[in-house]
Specification:
The structure holds three protein chains of three kinds. Chain A is of the alpha+beta class. Chain A has eleven helices and 21 strands. Chain A folds into two domains: about 5-235, 3-Layer(aba) Sandwich (Rossmann fold), CATH 3.40.50.300; about 235-375, Beta Barrel (OB fold (Dihydrolipoamide Acetyltransferase, E2P)), CATH 2.40.50.140. Chain B is built from 16 helices and no strands. Classes of the chains: A alpha+beta, B mainly alpha, C mainly alpha. Chains in contact: A-B, A-C, B-C. Chains B and C meet through helix 3, helix 6, helix 7, helix 8 and helix 9 of B and helix 2, helix 5, helix 6, helix 7 and helix 9 of C. Bound molecules: adenosine-5'-diphosphate and magnesium ion. Magnesium ion (MG) binds near residues 43 and 44 of chain A.
């Protein structure tokens, strides 16, 4: 078992396509690290570089303190679970799981013992003599896991291992994989584009975009303190509302204006978020859907918006709202830094019993303690580093 | 589809009811009758065709059970030709020779084809595509175009005095197709499977023999069957590159016997049947591999 | 930050990426695995082509070589036998439409799946397994003076017409062509049947519901669908006509009577091994190569068209 270390790693594919840029990340021994990001952002590339399947263009990768840039995959002692499982079709489940051990000349009894043991953990014992073809998707997925586990490697690498499963099985396997990883305590790097998977499974989550690491944090931190507007918009479902806004100071009191609305901003943000420097300058105001609350009559800082869409999810209601006027289009620059930024649309997560009708005008307040501010052009959070 | 007008009976049965009932009864009967006639005509033509295609086998069997005299007068039958066949045509020796030549050639064709096919399909190296195209183009070179220098070269090495002369020529002629087929086949194996093997601890050499090869069994069968029939049935290479009469293949032996002109037709037919049987058996057992090989690359 | 990132990206792009150990291994194994094929094909196919070109300019009996130069080619083109062989080849091409048409008809009939079609299929394909030496021997029996053809003719009351096709200068080539057509039926039928199997039956049904007759369906749906298969069969048949008739000629006619059934490929053999004129034989081989190469280019085009 060992920790994995990326130090300023760069990957340029032949042809000049830069897939990973200046990537530094430490994965602790036994840690479950999730790499998440939209499709094409370089997650698979990063993972394959650890496995040794892809050469490192610049920087170093080390496993257990040993630089492995020039070490063959077989000498890295890592196991990989592939997206489409890559089970050997001509071998039985047991042979698939024992193959790596067989190559390493482990004694037959030992192989049988370890395969049986692993099969038990994965509830595969009855299927050991079947070929992959005769298994269901979930079973194949578990065999792919088993093939990695039997080897007792330094680290597990998993590339979207659940993406070929149906929704329900995916949820089941999510907890299953977490359970097994905790049981074995082996450092794991898990790649997914699904932020729900990332948030539910990872000890820490690394968010990537366009080959660049955006933020590494625990799921809670990522959710509460996104480092930039991209992370804010990527994590959470529905994602954080990002509003083109302006902060103004009237008689020493701060307020944020967006669309034709205005809400008060508590004074402590002035210190914690560099807000003084941004007064009268445009910025992005971030509000999580659950931080929008139906206003009780007479409360301060109310604003109103019209319901355009109502999604009843049973446990809650998602209300898509529009406040007055045209949907002002954000500039290209802002859109590039913060996809999803708007000036007049917003989603609110309301209680299941909330009385909401499409077309109705609602009175809302923001939870003043949970506001986020981002620079418009860079998308970087205005929060001072804690 | 049919030239001879006959929608298949099954689709006639599936004709939607309203449409069927809208046709008046005599007309419907007429079209049914026409269909039946069409199918009968087809069946008759197919019988006729079968007679034509079975003709060689009928001739071989019927004529081989005559003496030469009976053949010339046109009637009578006898097993004499069969009883004496080995005196004129060393069938057992030549069947053995054919087997040896086929086995050795096919072994070379398979080993070289699997290796190169795997390399072209999965181990991209600089210039690989050009080399692949070059080798595949070699499929187009007719033996006669290189026959003369080939013969002189091989004769100089002395290989024409044993099986190897023919074996290497058959191997060279069969290898380009075999490489083409294995390359096409290996390209279908997902890269991830190979990478799984690499991460599991294999080298590329190991991946080839322990993972790719077991997956290529159908392609191996196809190449084997096609080449077996090709080499077993070939005359020209055997005729020139097996100079030692004791090492002739059955096909060469038969042609040499026929060229003698003094030989009896019944004997030639008996020999033909002996030479044809092994290839026919292989063919009937492995028909589907043959079809696959023949249409490889066009019906994907 | 985005500036420095793009800077580092561009420097990296400029620097040739250092290949990893694994990539080096892959390339090395890749080359090694191809070496045996290269040696075999290089020594036994490519090198002899170059030799053939060289020796075509010489007088060569297999042992001693005497440089002649371009006049060797001039001489060859003044040799009437070569023109006879080329003419025979050209005439044999007349059998190609039959070698394609009959199998097409047979395949379409088989595709109707009348009772016992699988047995018929096996019967039709069976001759593809046997040597053309054997087919040639049987054909000799068929066309012989006391053979099947003549007894068939007398059976239908034409005993006055007594043929001896293999013995007649102007008929032997026809007999050879007919035998060639017979020999190609199995292979081509197999090709067409595979093609028909890939035809979506709902297309025909839709056309039939639209009121199209059998001929129209064949002409406008089946034939266009089969075009690739017909092209492939055409090329294979033409190449066979130029380079696969040796066995038939060897056992049926020996190239005769006279040179009436001597084709280019047989001429190569005769000139080389009966007359020991290896240089001229090599020259004929080159001509044959050029002809088949032209046809082969068409086939590569077909493969290429399918790949894209
Ligand atoms: N073999 C390759 N050659 C060139 N570019 C590649 C290759 N593999 C991936 N890429 C590119 O690198 C980027 C990152 O790809 P990838 O790591 O697969 O992303 P992800 O797994 O996050 O979806 C993409 O732009 C992709 O097109
Ligand atoms: Mg990926």
């Amino acid at each position: 078992m060992a920790e994995i270390n990326f130090d300023r790693v760069v990957k340029v594919y032949p042809g000049g396509n830069t897939a990973v840029q200046d990537f530094s990340l430490q994965v602790a021994d036994g840690e479950f690290m999730v790499l998440v990001g939209p499709s094409g952002c370089g997650k698979t590339t990063a993972l394959r570089m650890i496995a040794g399947l892809e050469e490192v263009s610049d920087g170093t990768i080390s496993i257990g303190g040993r630089v492995v840039n020039n070490v063959l995959p077989k000498d890295r002692d890592i196991a990989m679970v592939f997206q489409n499982y890559a089970l050997y079709p001509q071998m039985t489940v047991a042979q698939n799981m024992g193959f790596a051990l067989k190559i390493r000349n482990v004694a037959k009894d030992e192989i049988t013992r370890r395969v049986a043991e692993t099969a038990k953990i994965l509830r595969l014992s009855e299927y050991l003599d079947r070929r992959p073809k005769a298994l269901s998707g979930g079973q194949r997925q578990r065999v792919a896991m088993g093939r990695a586990i039997v080897r007792e490697p330094q680290a597990f690498l998993m590339d979207e291992p659940l993406s070929n499963l149906d929704a329900q099985l995916r949820v089941e396997m999510r907890t299953e994989i977490s359970r097994i990883q905790r049981l074995l305590g082996v450092a794991t790097i898990y790649v997914t584009h699904d932020q729900t998977e990332a948030m539910t499974m990872g000890d820490r989550v690394a968010v990537m975009r366009g080959g660049v690491l955006q933020q590494v944090a625990t799921p809670e931190d990522l959710y509460d303190h996104p480092a930039n507007s991209f992370v804010a918009g990527f994590i959470g479902s529905p994602p954080m509302n990002l509003l083109s806004a302006t902060v103004v100071e009237v008689e020493g009191a701060l307020s944020a204006r967006f669309g034709d609305q205005s809400v008060a901003v508590p004074g402590h943000y002035r210190e914690s978020h560099h807000l003084s420097e941004y007064v009268t300058r445009p910025l992005l105001l971030g509000v999580r859907p659950e931080d929008l609350v139906l206003a009780t009559p007479g409360v301060e800082g109310r604003f109103s918006a019209t319901v355009t869409l109502r999604e009843a999810l049973g446990s809650e209601i998602l209300a898509h709202l529009n406040f007055g006027g045209e949907d002002a289009i954000v500039s290209d620059e802002v859109a590039a830094a913060s996809p999803g930024a708007h000036s007049s649309r917003i989603v609110a997560r309301l209680g299941a019993r909330a009385q909401v009708l499409v077309g109705e005008r609602l009175e809302l307040t923001l939870n003043p303690e949970r506001l986020h501010f981002f620079d418009t052009s860079t998308g970087v959070t205005l929060a001072r580093t804690r | 589809m049919s030239v001879l007008s006959n929608p298949s009976t099954s689709s006639a049965a599936l004709t939607p009811a309203p449409r069927a009932s809208s046709i008046d009864v005599p007309g419907r009967n007429r079209s049914l009758a026409r269909r039946r006639l069409g199918r009968t005509l087809i069946f008759a033509s197919m019988i006729l065709m079968a007679v034509v295609m079975l003709y060689p086998f009928a001739v071989m069997i019927l004529v081989s059970f005559k003496t030469n005299a009976q053949y010339l007068i046109g009637h009578g039958s006898s097993t004499q030709t069969w009883r004496q066949i080995n005196a004129n045509l060393p069938v057992w020796q030549e069947l053995w020779n054919s087997t040896v030549v086929c086995t050795l050639s096919i072994a070379i064709i398979l080993v070289i084809g699997v290796m190169a096919g795997f390399s072209f399909a999965k181990l991209q190296f600089r210039g690989g595509n050009v080399v692949f195209l070059g080798i595949v183009s070699a499929m187009m070179v007719p033996l006669q175009a290189i026959l003369i220098p080939e013969f002189v070269n091989i004769a100089k090495t002395g290989l024409t005095n044993n099986y190897l002369g023919a074996v290497v020529v058959y191997a060279a002629l069969g290898t380009p197709f075999s490489i083409f087929l294995f390359t096409t086949y290996f390209r279908r194996i997902p890269d991830e499977l190979i990478e799984a093997g690499i991460v599991d601890g294999l080298g590329y050499w190991g991946v080839l023999w322990r993972l790719a090869l077991p997956m290529a069994l159908p392609a191996i069968a196809t190449v084997t069957v096609l080449q077996f029939i090709q080499i077993w049935d070939d005359l020209l290479v055997g005729l020139l590159f097996l100079q030692n009469p004791g090492e002739r293949t059955i096909t060469v032996g038969l042609a040499a016997l026929a060229a003698g002109h003094t030989t009896s037709i019944p004997l030639l037919m008996a020999g033909s049947l002996v030479s044809a049987l092994p290839a026919m058996i292989v063919y009937l057992l492995f028909q589907r591999f043959l079809v696959r090989g023949l249409t490889m690359g066009i019906d994907r | 930050m985005s500036l420095s990132a793009s800077l580092s990206a561009s420097t990296n792009a400029r620097r040739r990426p250092q290949s990893s150990l694994l990539v080096k291994r892959r390339r090395r194994v890749g080359v090694l695995l191809v070496v045996p094929a290269l040696v075999l094909v290089g020594l036994l196919i490519v090198y002899p082509i170059a030799q053939a070109v060289y020796y075509s300019f010489t007088n060569w009996d297999g042992l001693t070589t005497q440089w002649v130069g371009p006049s060797a080619w001039v001489q060859a083109f003044h040799n009437p036998t070569m023109w006879t062989a080329l003419k025979n080849n050209a005439e044999l091409l007349l059998s190609v439409p039959f070698a394609l048409g009959i199998p097409l008809l047979v395949a379409v009939m088989l595709h109707q799946r009348v009772a016992g079609w699988k047995i018929f299929r096996s019967i039709y394909f069976l001759p593809t397994a046997i040597s053309w030496v054997v087919i040639g021997l049987v054909a000799e029996h068929f066309f012989a003076y006391s053979g099947t053809l003549n007894s068939l003719l007398s059976d239908i009351g034409l005993s006055s017409v007594h043929t001896n096709m293999l013995g007649q200068e102007n008929e032997a080539l026809i007999a050879l062509g007919i035998t060639f057509i017979f020999s190609m039926i199995g292979t081509n039928t197999m090709l067409f049947l595979t093609g028909l199997a890939t035809l979506d039956p709902s297309l025909e049904e839709a056309a039939r519901i639209d009121g199209a007759g059998a001929w129209r369906i064949f002409r406008h749906i089946t034939l266009p669908h089969l075009s690739r298969f017909i092209q492939l069969a055409f090329v294979m048949t033409v190449i066979s006509a130029f380079s696969a008739l040796f066995s038939l000629i060897f056992v049926m006619t020996g190239g005769g009577p006279g040179y009436s059934t001597t084709t280019m490929e047989f001429l190569v053999y005769q000139t080389g091994f009966n007359q020991s004129q290896f240089g001229t034989a090599a020259l004929y081989g080159i001509i044959l190569f050029v002809i088949t190469a032209l046809v082969g280019v068409v086939q590569l085009r077909l493969i290429g068209a399918k790949d894209s």
